[in-house]
Every structure is written in structure tokens, then in C-alpha cells.
């Protein structure tokens, strides 16, 4: 049995929320690929839950773009192009999915569109507190290279500090996506032998441009840093048949 299809009683917590977690993870990890999605009646029986609870869970999954539910058509899994990839739950479930280099390429392309702009904005308007957070994250990255901190946590802290320092509420909405993309990216590059990831010094160059108030330099250096990551992932894609 798929481990994501345990009953709410086996997992605990609010029944509606638990059903959403179980079904959402099952959808994103491919359990329903090529098979029919259960009806509300079948879901109620599967989870020993009232139809009203199941109906609310279905609405929540629909809001995340994972399923469609229409009269006389039943419940269907939506194509992944329709999934809300900025939803924290969907991003979390993607972490459990079998790794896809193509997905990581798309993540990194999105980061290329967002993070250089955030770095430029940060260089133009970051507060002293923002600059201190960015510098602290760089210090953590150096510590991680010495084995005194966690490299993933330090890397994420740096990129999120830059996003925060941009002062742009729309860019800040990408924080969960950036953290997820970084986690997947670093897990992947750790598995590729002979790969040199961006170092603390590479990130410090971005930080220096921000702290010294050089937007154009911050944009360019951040773009170069991310472009290297994208080139790495693309180099690992299977050759087209």
C-alpha cells in the first residue's frame, strides 16, 4: 500500500487537514498516475470520515490546483501544469517525489528570474539589519566549509536574507519556493561526483555588492552564481532521443 494512503487515525490530527495531506502527497508523488481518483463516497469509506469532511478536503485540494471536481464528471487529478507550485504544501510534497532534473531546471530558471532582481533591490535599499543578516549568512557558509555549520541551512539562510532585503512583498512570496529549490538542488549536486558547488566566497561577492550599495554588480554576480547552477543541472539531463 502506498505509504501516503494511511488513514487519519493512523496519522492523527484534524481529519480534513490530514486527508488533504495524505491525498495531496499521493497525487504529487504519482500514486494516481494512470488510475482513477476515488469518488467522495469511496474516500469517505477509505478514511472513515463524514462526507462533509471529505467534501471540504476536496475543495482544499482543488484550491491547490491538484484536482478538478465537476458534476457528472467526478474528481480528476489535474495536470501538473495546473498545480499551484507556490503553495507550501505542494512544494513540500514535491520534495517526496522521485527526483526530476527537468523540474530542477525549471526551479533554477525561476530563481534566475527572481533572485538577481532581489539582489539589485537589496543593494539599493537594504536596511542595516538586512545587511547584517546577509553577512551573518555568509559567515555561516564559511563555518559550514569548516564543518562547523550545516551547509544547506546556511545556503538557504543567505538566499532568503537577500529576498527579505529586497523589501518587495511580491518577491518575498517566493521564499518557500526558493528554499525548496535550494534543498532539491543541493541534494542533487551532492550526488554528482566531481561537482564544485558555489562557495562561500561566491556568495560573499554578492553580499559585498549589496552591503556597498552596488545594484548592478549585485544583480550581475547573483545571476552568474545561479547561471552556474543551471548549467550544472542542464549538463546532467539525458540526451534527447
Radius of gyration: 21 Å
Reported for the largest beta sheet, the result is: 2 strands, antiparallel
Largest sheet, order of strands side by side?
1-2
Structural class: mainly alpha
**SSE string, helix = H, strand = E?**
HHHHEEHHHHHHHH
Number of DSSP strand runs: 2
Tell me which CATH architecture of the largest domain applies here: Up-down Bundle
Name of the CATH superfamily of the largest domain: GntR ligand-binding domain-like
The portion of residues assigned to helices is 55-70%
Mean pLDDT: 88
Number of helices: 12
How many distinct folded domains? Answer: 2
The first-level CATH class name of the largest domain: Mainly Alpha
Question: Cα distance, first to last residue?
Answer: 34 Å
At the third CATH level, what is the topology name of the largest domain? Answer: Four Helix Bundle (Hemerythrin (Met), subunit A)
Strand fraction equals: under 5%
Shape: elongated
